[in-house]
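Suppose you are handed a protein chain with no further information: no name, no annotation, nothing but its sequence. What can you learn? This example shows the usual starting point.
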Amino acid sequence: MISSAIPFAEIETVFLDAGHTLLCWDYGFASELLADVGFPCDPAVLARAEAAARPQLSRLISRGRSTEGEQVFLAYVRWILDALPPTGELAEAERAGAAARLLRAIRTPEAQDRLWSHVPPDLPPALARLRGCGLRLVVVSNSDGTVEAKLAAAGLRDLLHSVVDSHVVGSEKPERAIFEHALRLAKSRPERTLHVGDLYHADVVGARGAGLHAVLLDPYGDWRDFDCERARDVAELAQRILTSRNRD
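A reasonable first move is to predict its three-dimensional structure. Written in structure tokens, the prediction is:
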């Protein structure tokens, strides 16, 4: 079993999830989509509701459901709507109808490109600092074959050594195979590799199952009861790694 004490100074490779780790939702655009289906919402309120839905999504994944399945995404949208003040008080049928309409709007290729387009301002400098001290950076993402193009469009691809897309390699987190593929690609040892992502059962459980260390992103403190190290975002994690390396 992986120790909860991560030897940050010994880490040589960092695996990074993509969604809500490198590429976040554009909550302004998502709010526009929500308004179009009849439920206007402030982007900051929507951001909080989306993060609050992640633990429920993670539990669904723990029962063997794919993160890329339509029914899983529909459940995720429902949980987001349930956490919003305007929709949480609606009748069940109204919430279900709103979720279905929002899902149809979100799932178009054009909407997906806009939705997954926000890069936190402190992320590129954090990645550059990690690369600058010799760490290999590899994206390990459950995706639909488009994640590398999305990273390039966002200006992040050149900061990364490799990209592993579940659709391309034929396995997805939390399966051991996708992490082992990434380890071979990076020529990295699991005990010297750290994976970071936003879903406990896909990212932490999956990484540990392949012998890696893992950190869970938790911007609002929604995962306090989970047995893993947490960080607010990649920039905070990068600072933790760099501080450890400088201290040693």
